[in-house]
Amino acid sequence: AQSVSQHNHHVILSEAASLELGCNYSYGGTVNLFWYVQYPGQHLQLLLKYFSGDPLVKGIKGFEAEFIKSKFSFNLRKPSVQWSDTAEYFCAVNAMGTGAGNNRKLIWGLGTSLAVNP
Amino acid sequence: EPEVTQTPSHQVTQMGQEVILRCVPISNHLYFYWYRQILGQKVEFLVSFYNNEISEKSEIFDDQFSVERPDGSNFTLKIRSTKLEDSAMYFCASSEMGTTVRSPLHFGNGTRLTVT
């Protein structure tokens, strides 16, 4: 079965520190990969997505993620975090398998809670 | 920027009662979804809906659940007889197209359902 693992459940950083959140998935076929963010009291928002091409993807607010196919990973990075980055971060995978349904649902990781201290 | 809106933000109900969670997807979107997140667990897919019918549902989406698009704007999730384990945050989402590649999901703020 397809699954997504996020290794860090809680991360605490000081402002200006660098961030890397791990995400690994299990699926042998073609995947589309996403990072969503949920700020306190707000809805889930798309940070960035990968579906093909350059494996280094740049998203909003200075975030980027690198797809490493051989490692089944899609880690999220930001060189210098801000207090406003405090949020819950979710990695999600859309497995492009056979069957009509596979294109329309996401498989989610457990999420990583990031707290940035000013 | 258009948003998906969900009401209510928090619903408390007694076990065995029926609840209806409401969502207004983005107006030009054609695909609608419900996800839920039980506290401390992963976000789980419940159901997708297109062209006035369910296109896919998970094993969670049993006979106690139903979805409806009663008019041109609302998309509802009904739980007929709630159980304690239905307590969760329910997220509605919509997308312009069916594949998430070219049209990612847009989520509402969620409805926190508490079953007592």
Explain this structure:
The complex is a heterodimer of chains A (118) and B (116). Chain A is mainly β. Helices cover 0% and strands 51% of the residues of chain A. Chain A has no helices and twelve strands. Chain A has strands spanning 3-5, 10-14, 19-21, 24-26, 31-38, 44-50, 56-58, 64-68, 73-78, 87-95, 107-108, 112-117. In chain A, strands 2, 5, 6, 10, 11 and 12 form a six-stranded mixed sheet that branches. In chain A, strands 3-9-8-7 form a four-stranded antiparallel sheet, with no helix packed on it. Residues 98-102 of chain A have low confidence and may be disordered. Chain B has 116 residues and is mainly beta. Chain B has no helices and eleven strands. In chain B, the strands form two sheets. In chain B, strands 2, 4, 5, 6, 9, 10 and 11 form a seven-stranded mixed sheet that branches. A four-stranded antiparallel sheet of chain B has the order 1-3-8-7, with no helix packed on it. In chain B, a hairpin with a 6-residue loop joins strand 7 (65-68) and strand 8. The relative contact order of chain B is 0.33. The mean pLDDT of chain B is 91. Chains A and B meet through strand 5, strand 6, strand 10 and strand 11 of A and strand 4, strand 5 and strand 10 of B.
Q: What's the number of extended β-strand segments of chain B?
A: 11
User: Secondary-structure element sequence of chain B?
Assistant: EEEEEEEEEEE
**Helix and strand composition category of chain A:** mainly beta
Low-confidence stretches of chain A: 98-102
List the main descriptive attributes of the protein structure presented here:
heterodimer; A: 118 residues; mainly beta; four-stranded antiparallel β-sheet; 0% helix; globular; B: 116 residues; seven-stranded mixed β-sheet; 11 strands
